[in-house]
Every structure is written in structure tokens, then in C-alpha cells.
Amino acid sequence: MNQINLGFRPVGARVLVSLNGEPVATVDWLAAKECAIEIKVCANSSIDGRVSYVLQTDGRPLAMDLEKSVAYEVSAALHHAGAIAEEVAANEKLTKDAALFIRMGAPFGMAQNPAIKSQAWTDAQWDSGLRKFPLRGIPSQERVGVPKIMNHLPKEKIN
After folding, report:
1. More confidently predicted of 110 and 10
2. Around Cβ 80, how many Cβ atoms within 10 Å?
3. I want to staple 124 with a disulfide (CB 3.0 to 4.6 A). Which of 24, 77, 91, 103 is the partner?
4. How many CB atoms lie within 10 A of CB 56?
5. Are 58 and 30 part of one and the same domain?
6. pLDDT (tens digit, 9 = 90+) per residue, 68-99?
7. Collapsed DSSP state (helix, strand, coil) of residue 121
8. Which domain does 116 fall in, by range?
9. What is the mean pLDDT of residues 52-70?
10. Beta bridge pairs of residue 25
11. Using the 8-state DSSP alphabet, how is residue 16 labeled?
């Protein structure tokens, strides 16, 4: 049986697939994450301990015949590379959302990329559109307070 090195690396908003260190093709980040889930499902439903899967790439289809344990590792690596590429693809949206959270006083991370975090802090401080955003949040439809206590009986209506 031939042994190969299969690699996945995020390149911009795409995932680069490489065989034995040589780039073969690229896959969109969403397709990479979906393929990772499909490979994991195939591994879970495998009865003979082998998983056969065809990865559709931009360059050419890549047929894989993997052992069950290797399929889980390939699935995890492909999903991780797809998640990193997704951050790059959704850079502007992540930056705006994170800046809004920072502006509202909840500075938790929406992204792992340090450049996105830095840009979010800059936008939270200097973006005039975010400065005009109401900091009180979304108004609730419920009334909160203390009920009024009446000391007298209501007057009866005479018809």
C-alpha cells in the first residue's frame, strides 16, 4: 500500500490541498467544512474499518481510501483549515460585530486572528457609525417595576 502525506492549509478564504508537500488544488472554506463533516459521518458508519471518499476540488477530484482512525484525523484537519479560512472570508463582518460588542462593553473575542481583533478595537474607538449606535441595547417589550397598591376599593359604576 502506498503511503502519502495529505495536507490542508488555509490560503486566504480557501483551503489548499497538498499531496506529499505538492499543492494539488484548492477548496472553498464552506465546502471544506462540509466535506469534513461528510468524512466523519462516513467514518462513523464504516463497518469494515475503511472509508472511501472523493473530495471535489477546483483542480481535480481527489479519491481517498482511508482507515477509520486516519479518516477522523483528516476530517479534523480539514475542518480546522476551513474554520481558519472562514475567518478570512468573513473578515469585515467579524470586525464590525466584534467592534460593536467592544463598544457595548463586552470585549470577548469573535475571532482568533490578531489582526481582526486589533481592527475591531480600532473600529470601536474611532468608527463614527458605532459611536452613534445606542449603547442601551435592544429595548424589551416587558414592563418591569413594582405594582401599584391601591388603598381603597374601586367605585362601583351605576347604570
Report:
1. 10
2. 16
3. 103
4. 11
5. yes
6. 999 999 999 999 999 989 888 888 888 888 88
7. helix
8. 91-131
9. 87
10. 17
11. E
